[in-house]
Amino acid sequence: MHYLFAEHRHHASDADQRREYRHYLARQMGPMIHALMLMAALAYGVGVVASALIRSSPLPVLLRLALLLPLLLVAMATRHVRRPRTLSLLALLCVLLLEIGINLNSFGHVPEQPLVMPGLLLPVASSVIWLGRWDFAAAMAMCALGPLPVLLLGNTDDVQIFQYFVYMAIAISLSAVLRAFMARTLFAQFRLEQQLREQAYTDGLTGLLLRNRFLELARLALDDIHRQQKPACMLFLDADHFKQLNDDYGHAAGDAALIALATAMRGQMRPNDLIGRIGGEEFAILLPGLDLELAGQRAEQLRVAVRAILRPDGPLTVSIGVAECDQAGENIGSLLARADQAMRQAKRGGRDRIVSAPGC
């Protein structure tokens, strides 16, 4: 179940927030990572051919080009992957393959020729694709350590090795700066989209789910409940004599009563319960995992808590209808309608009471 209310979201753990953000990054950056991997494979192939044309190597061209196949396979695998960890591992595998290719193409270097190390481009070129700190750190470590075999075993002197480490330190520092700014921009976009979704899905006055969003999430939750063969109940609430409150004391008093009622509902419900504002003073609550008896007890606790709220003309009271989903094929519309009918019966019975709907 989702943390959809502002209060619930503040109570959500940092781990949940980070997980949601990583999935957002995977969705947004997946196509770019796929495109960059294809470009890396193409650049590697062009680099091998160009290297073969300008200097000789003890390793045959076909052997060095053999890495193109795994590079392309890894790139193609990222096309439809949107799981953050899988995407990061594929990107790291691509970097590893490129580092192997750099070593293969650097063997046989002649000391008099300048040593060109494409590996210095990797940190900067890949700086924007890493979804978390761990994969960024792993990638930078591979970029720094990857060329060491050819540096230590090849025909390179101490000056060239020193130059390499200086240039690599600069490249990694630049990569860290680029990634930090990219991460800051993407996080700001993530927060903005969250706020826009909240405005589209939640009631501006009470902070509860709007009717359509409530029904959408309740439908999904009910499908899960049916699959797990667990009980579930729906509460339908209506504030008693609410029109009279608006007429006698104004809409500001009515708004204050609705806000207090929403606060009471959130205080009495569990984090995985769904609460929605169905109409003006009508609300619905889906209680997963509770049978009719337990849901009735929860409804009574809520009724008592609401009665402690004072209106200008006395205590705030609600009429509550309770319906249990006791049939596997029942949909959310039928369950809500039965709870609504029970609530209307509570109204006719004198208000400030709870009525349970008969089984469907």
TrEMBL record:
GO MF terms, alphabetically ordered: diguanylate cyclase activity
Record's keyword annotation contains Transmembrane helix: yes
Assigned keywords, A-Z: Membrane, Nucleotidyltransferase, Transferase, Transmembrane, Transmembrane helix
Record's catalysed reaction(s): 2 GTP = 3',3'-c-di-GMP + 2 diphosphate
Highest rank taxon of the organism: Bacteria
CDD domains: GGDEF (cd01949)
Transmembrane segments: 32-53, 59-77, 89-108, 136-155, 161-181
PANTHER family reported in the protein's UniProt record: DIGUANYLATE CYCLASE DGCM-RELATED (PTHR45138:SF9), REGULATORY COMPONENTS OF SENSORY TRANSDUCTION SYSTEM (PTHR45138)
Protein name: diguanylate cyclase
Species of the source: Rhodanobacter terrae
